[in-house]
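Reply to dn_fold:

You asked what the input looked like. This is it:
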Amino acid sequence: MQDKPFRLAFIGGGIHSAVGETHKIASQMDGFFKLVAGCFSTNLDLNHQTAKAWGLSSEQVFENHLDLLKTQQDKVDAIVVLTPTDSHQEIILEAFRYGYAVICEKSLATSLEDGYAILEAQKKHKSFLSVTFNYTGYPMIRELKQIITDDVLGDLQQIQIEMPQETYLRQNLKQEVSAPQAWRLQDSCIPKISLDLGSHLHHMILFLTEKKAQEVIAVQNTFGAFPQVIDSVSAIVKYTDSMLAQFWFTKAALGQRNGLKIRIYGTKGSAEWLQLEPELIRISDVYGNIQLVDRTGAVKIANQKRYNRFKAGHPAGFIEAFANYYQDIAFALKEFLEKKSFSSPYVFGAQESCEGLAMLQAAKLSTKTNAWESCVIDGPVGRNNKIF
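and this is what came back:
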């Protein structure tokens, strides 16, 4: 691909964060990226502990992200933004101004308005931006997309997609519920749970079907131990071509770890994929036949060498899926640096993120109006005033 790996700098993602270690491993697993600098935490001790743990010298760690951005243009190829979602907009806009390519942990922003500010800045500066919707990195999710493209399921009619977790109810032996990071306990324009989980579900449907959300009706609740935030959302979303999707995401479902599940129903058949069984797709047809499609079987996408780091029978999981996504980003970044644009079926940025933010913000509005709300945004930089 290139003679040397792309050089990364992390902003956020310290060793006590939820995502830092995952991004570090996934970005470097296949040799396409190398971590060369970072401002990992506003806590100076934790910042330097992270740098030491990850093999960086004191010259490679910065006490604030502005010092990093001002001084590392010739030493860094891309900035990875891993800070709390509330701070994404400010950091991304600053990175654009200093000429950096940006890789951002989802969600891109906390509101549609902030998402558009990033999109408009990206266009102004002609910058590279990728948002890490890493669940689409699973080989069998990409196989499922091919199955849909091949019309195996026919016209898509219904989708049920869910991501239940138990973290806001599960207790330890002292009958205590572990508190999440403080920023997750302050809902923004869009509830944090929608930014954490709902953004993945919206993008999964967009990725698999290429259909656009049109209208949404939703309810939201607080069932867990933290009454100041929403922790459960159910929604029905109308898509283009009359496709209907049901969303459920929660952090208050005891017995559920991270139960991402998608079921797709069409006129010719149905398909089901569960993250806890990531190597399999369950296909049903109109005759009542059921088939299990295995990653190592007669498949079109998932048998590619890049998805098979180990021999058959060694399941690939979350970290490998994330690494697959980082490979895609590397391919796209290389093309962008050569042509100032890129074309990738797997890498998505501000436009698609804004579409997700529009749906999630309209869902929040729907919980207040008890009515269907439009989540259509008018063109690539248009604005739906009601959603805003």
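The radius of gyration is 21 Å.
Hope that clears it up.
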